[in-house]
């Protein structure tokens, strides 16, 4: 959705764009000599080095290692596609809105690399014996951190500022949508074992809340990436405000119910980690049940705060079609 941001006003337009308002020279090798082009080269190199180091010694066994390897390979591939599109000047032929896609991807990539930089060393590297594999894994973690900083820097450089013509995804509410969907995906990973919530209607309601809010936020993102916001039966600003308000109310119930039924003995919960037999020993590539429950509670609070901020910023935005 092409927009012009002037303080808290977003004016929708019908003009096309070849970028995100950056100073990158498109359709020319000179694009790589501009600050944003150099930053993307750093992203490309750091993710490539990260997965190459791990692949050279086969140090990605287990789900956590597989996730980290996928993250680095995926970020490398998409960053390479973005560079090729920029160099060849193919933005107008790209199937998604070029105003919204690069910053949306950069935000996701920053979160992906951040998760890999935390998960890989804490659930995998520390269990490796000293030697070549461990050294490569530590170096890969360092390059993952570099990639995370590089992607976060791109988000900071290309986000919406007063007076700029940009896409909705470059605004604060747009970036918060990315955070909300990413956190929801992490929650889904932690509750992948049905026994954590089955046979307890309150906990099943929490899972339904996570799914409903994720789907609604994902729809908002996809509508912007596909420039399909005019297909809604209601005005897009009303959809965003309603989505944020509904999500705040739903997540508020989940924030109360999930800890209550997971950690309160009166409701069948387990208040102490030491009583959870699955947490009695340290396991490589494994997160015990009590830690999963705690992680979901923390992530629920984080997403509630994100939705509250989304609601506040969405209420301050004014969309004016021209």
TrEMBL record:
It comes from the Eukaryota. Keywords: Membrane, Repeat, Transmembrane, Transmembrane helix. The chain crosses the membrane at residues 38-61, 67-90, 102-125, 137-157, 178-196, 202-226, 238-261, 294-313. Residues 31-163, 168-319 form the MARVEL domain. GO terms for cellular component: cell-cell junction; plasma membrane. It is found in: Membrane. Residues 1-21 are annotated as: Disordered. InterPro entries: Marvel (IPR008253), MYADM-like (IPR047123). The keyword Repeat applies. It is a multi-pass membrane protein. PROSITE patterns: MARVEL. PANTHER family: MYELOID-ASSOCIATED DIFFERENTIATION MARKER (PTHR17068:SF3), MYELOID-ASSOCIATED DIFFERENTIATION MARKER MYADM FAMILY MEMBER (PTHR17068). Belongs to the MAL family. This is MARVEL domain-containing protein. It comes from Diceros bicornis minor (South-central black rhinoceros).
